[in-house]
Each structure stands twice: as C-alpha cells, then as structure tokens.
Specification:
This protein is of the alpha/beta class. The chain has a single domain, classed as P-loop containing nucleotide triphosphate hydrolases (Rossmann fold), CATH 3.40.50. The protein contains 9 helices and 10 strands.
C-alpha cells in the first residue's frame, strides 16, 4: 500500500504501486537495433566528470556471490518453481528469459525476500544463508533486501515525493546513512544517469523512461551487493526503451552483479555472462548468449528464440 502521509518515513524495501499518470514522453535518440547472435565489444564506458558514482560496492572476481539450490514454490495447486538452482559470481550478469508465467519474476522476488519459497536454499557470500524448508524469520527476509535491491516494471516511485526524496528514502531511513552523505551520493548518481536537472521534480513530471532511471538510482543508492531487474523496459513506450537499456549496459560495464528478467534478446546478448531459459517453472537450458541464441540444444529453447528473433517466420 502506498504511503499517504508525506512526512512519515516508510520502508523503501516494500514494493509500492502508485499508479500515477505520466506526462507526455520526451523524445530520445535511439541506437539501431542489434542482432543478439553477433559478438559485441563490452569495453567499459566511463564519464570522467561523474567520478565513480556507478562503481559497485562488491568488486568483480571469480567468487560466487549468490548460490540458489532446489527452489520450489507453489500457489495452491499451481507449481510455479520446480527445483530451480543457479550461481551468480561477483560482477556477473545473469539474464533470465522465457515465456510469461514461467517463474522468472517469482525467482527475483524470492531473491529479494518478497516471496518465500516452499523449499530449497539460498545463500549469499557473507550471509544470509536460508533454508526455506524451515520457517523464515523476518530478520532473514530483511537481510535479503539489505543484500539486494529490486527495480520493478512500473517504477514504484512515491508520487508525493520529489526525485531526490524518493532516492533518499532507503539510505536515510532504512540504512541510517547521514542525510548529507546520502544526498551527495544521490546527486552524483542522478548526474551520472542524466537526471541532475530533475532533482526536485515529482514523478508525474517525468517520462516513463525518466521514472525508470530514477528507480534504478534509488536501487543504486542503497549500495546493494546484487541488483535485480524485473523486465525494466516492458512498461515503456518503444522509443524510451533505449535510454533505460543504456544505463543497464553501463552498470554491467562497471562490474555490478545483476540478475535481469527481460525479453530484449539484443540487450541480453550485449550484457549477459550467462542466460537461463525458463519454462514451466524450471531452467530448461543455460549457457552464454552466443550458445543459446545461435545453437540452442533444447527444442523448447529453439522455438522460443526463433519466435522472438523471427516472429513472422513459420
């Protein structure tokens, strides 16, 4: 439920759906679409004037940051996750693809403590380590949210707060960061994603792409070990998709550890270290983008990729 008192602090780790209208979108320059089957140069792009505002708190290396094993989840008689397991190394980008209803979003919500699986284990390097076959405490769920931050499809900004107030909620009220320190970091992040001039704007004064970039900054301001993105461009007009994907690409280049649900296969080809294809609550196939998009081994994967890349072919 969205807060109604503009002076009352709220827990930013809880999802909010303000359902506010958005003003007409501003035009943006888009790059030409890319073929996800072609190789790409992933050399970093860094804006020297913005310093290290986008630098991740957890440096990339070969150690596993997150291990997930045997995760199951049912809603009534509907089994939405069936023995899901994978590993995410520090600085790695793992992309989840698959048809709607295949369990991808439920996986993300489980990683962030917004959903509680029925069984399986989840462990972060440095904690927490959770066995879902036992009762999960509120402290463990909050620990998951402290280690990760989630960016939702529909922005979930507080409609009665300005951009800077939205960004400061988490660091100041949840993590108890001094306001001056949190403000300096928030302003640096807004500068880095091209929104410095929108600091005091309200969400209804922003385009959908701008609102989503604020949502990304709000997650970054918490300095989580893991960033989670649930189809971050699906609610945007096509002309606004590029500006959000560009920010995600820069985060990947900077070395952030991310798990991303998306149908943008061209984007997945550019940023993913590993792609997991989900169907009916299970991981059907996994591999590099080149492997999955050019030579999938499972027929179900092949049909899905062909439908996305060649929608008019029989």
């Amino acid at each position: 439920m969205s807060p109604t008192d503009p002076h009352e602090p709220v827990d930013p780790r809880e999802p909010v759906d303000p359902r506010e209208p958005v003003d007409p979108h501003e035009p943006v320059d888009l790059h030409e679409p890319v073929d996800p089957r072609e190789p790409v140069d992933r050399s970093p792009h860094v804006d020297p004037a913005a310093g290290d505002a986008l630098a991740p708190p957890t440096p990339a290396d070969d150690r596993a940051l997150l291990r997930v094993a045997g995760i199951t989840k049912s809603f009534g008689t509907n089994r939405v996750l069936d023995g899901v397991g994978f590993e995410v190394r520090r600085g790695e980008v793992v992309v989840l693809i698959g048809p709607s209803g295949s369990g991808k979003t439920t996986v993300l919500r489980s990683l962030n403590g917004l959903e509680t699986p029925d069984a399986g284990t989840l462990s972060f390097d440095g904690g927490p380590e959770i066995d879902f076959s036992a009762k999960v405490s509120k402290a463990d769920r909050l620990a998951l949210r402290d280690r990760s931050a989630m960016v939702f499809q529909h922005h979930n900004l507080f409609p009665h707060r300005t951009v800077i107030q939205n960004v400061l909620e988490g660091p100041v009220y949840a993590h108890r960061v001094p306001k001056a320190e949190a403000t300096a970091r928030a302003e640096a992040l807004l500068e880095r994603v091209g929104l410095a001039e929108k600091r005091d704007a309200f969400p209804f004064e922003l385009s959908g792409g701008q609102q989503q970039r604020v949502g990304i900054v709000r997650a970054l301001a918490l300095q989580p070990s893991l960033l989670l993105f649930d189809e971050p461009t699906s609610a945007l007009d096509p002309e606004l998709v590029g500006e959000v994907l560009l920010v995600l690409k820069e985060l990947a280049d900077e070395g952030w550890t991310m798990v991303i649900v998306t149908h943008e296969l061209g984007f997945a080809r550019q940023v993913a270290d590993e792609v997991l294809f989900f169907d009916e609550g299970a991981i059907v196939e996994r591999g590099t983008p080149k492997q999955l998009f050019t030579d999938p081994q499972h027929e179900r994967t092949r049909r899905f990729v062909d439908r996305i890349l060649r929608p008019l072919e029989e």
